[in-house]
Amino acid sequence: MTGDWLQGPYVYAIYKSYGFDLKQQAILFVTGFLSSGIFGTVVGSAADKYGRKKFCLLFALLYSTFCVIITSKNFYILLFGRILSGISTSLLFSVFESWMVSEHFSRGFHSSLLSETFSMATYGNGLVAIFSGLLANWLAEHFGITSPFLAAIGFFVLAALVITVTWKENYGDKDNSKETSSLTQALKVISGDSRVLAVGAVQSLFEASMYTFVFFWGPFLENYHKSEEGLPFGIIFASFMVSIMIGSLLYGNLCGSRNVPLSDIAQGTLLLAGVSLLFPLLYPNEYTLFFFFILFEVTCGLYFPTISTLRAKVVPENLRATVSNLFRVPLNACVVTLLVSDLTTSIQCLMCSVLLIVAFVWSFALEESDTSKKAAKIRKKLEKKNKLM
């Protein structure tokens, strides 16, 4: 994650430094999201079948290649880099979690510990992101704007070495001979279980808003920035990460000592997220924008452990990467639509708020009582099949 976070604050800035306008930048970002949507389901299914450890190593290779490519100023070479970045993103947000959950249960840990694990992971991720943001800021000031991307390669290589030496391989749907078999089973699970569908809908809508936010927060703040000095993107990014850590601590408190149901946490998180992207439009100035963007990042800290725990509870283990990546298809479709529609940053912010409110409404389907007998039967059949492997 250090390698991923190092480049986070400077993707928008580096494209701008190359002289690309917002439309060209949107094309680059859209290419990445299209790549993630098109190839995500394929790599997720392949990871379940051929081994998640192997695809975690593939992630390190592809992302390192992207970091080299982004130093080029050629628009078409950068487009190819965005394709690799899209595939890498799909792997990062599905295969690593699938490997961890499978390893968690194979070692005999109780399922109740997953919630605590995801909370700690989100908190640790925030710490890493703060360090990465500050390091990226220092590197960019002293060695140029491409240096955070080149430094990220070293962390990806280190991650690959750790994975190679310390991780065991695990699989999901390994025994099917047809490439489409796990995709077909994943679609059956989604259509047969209202809770899986609800988790996927919430994931798609929230993360579509989050990824669109990544694109517009920089130019939105710049529109209201009155100083002649440029915005300190690394410092702002680190502030966002502190907010994510605060959100993860809130999640730990709500889930732990207060024992608040996951569905209630999800509903509160989504409502607060929707409001946090609506109020900046009512009171648009540099300081209110920053405050409500910070609040949105707090909801991100609440969201990640919540959705990860929900996925672990309702998605069959042997299809976890496949199902997760299937829901990245509508996610990426939403992002692409928002980015290619030539909307102002204010309208993009409003649309993200609308998506979050829709996700809030859909989150009421996460209640335990919504699980049908048919859904339980499908999950039981798939889990039994996995045990026989």
What's the SSE blueprint?
Blueprint: H1 2-7, H2 11-17, H3 22-50, H4 52-69, H5 75-92, H6 95-106, H7 113-143, H8 147-166, H9 181-192, H10 194-223, H11 233-255, H12 262-276, H13 279-282, H14 286-314, H15 320-326, H16 328-340, H17 345-362, H18 373-387
Helix pairs in contact: 3-4, 3-5, 3-15, 3-16, 4-5, 4-6, 4-8, 7-11, 7-14, 9-10, 10-14, 10-16, 10-17, 11-14, 12-14, 12-17
The profile of the biggest β sheet is:
none
- Uncertain segments are 369-374
Could you tell me the radius of gyration in angstroms? 20 Å
**Count of discrete alpha- or pi-helical segments spanning 4 or more residues:** 18
Topology, number of strands: 0
**What average pLDDT do the residues reach?**
83
Intertermini distance: 32 Å
Shape: globular
Give the amount of beta strand, in percent: under 5%
- CATH third-level topology: Growth Hormone, Chain: A
Subcellular location: Cell membrane
Organism: Rhizophagus irregularis
Transmembrane segments: 26-43, 55-71, 117-139, 145-167, 196-218, 230-253, 265-283, 289-307, 345-365
GO molecular function: molybdate ion transmembrane transporter activity
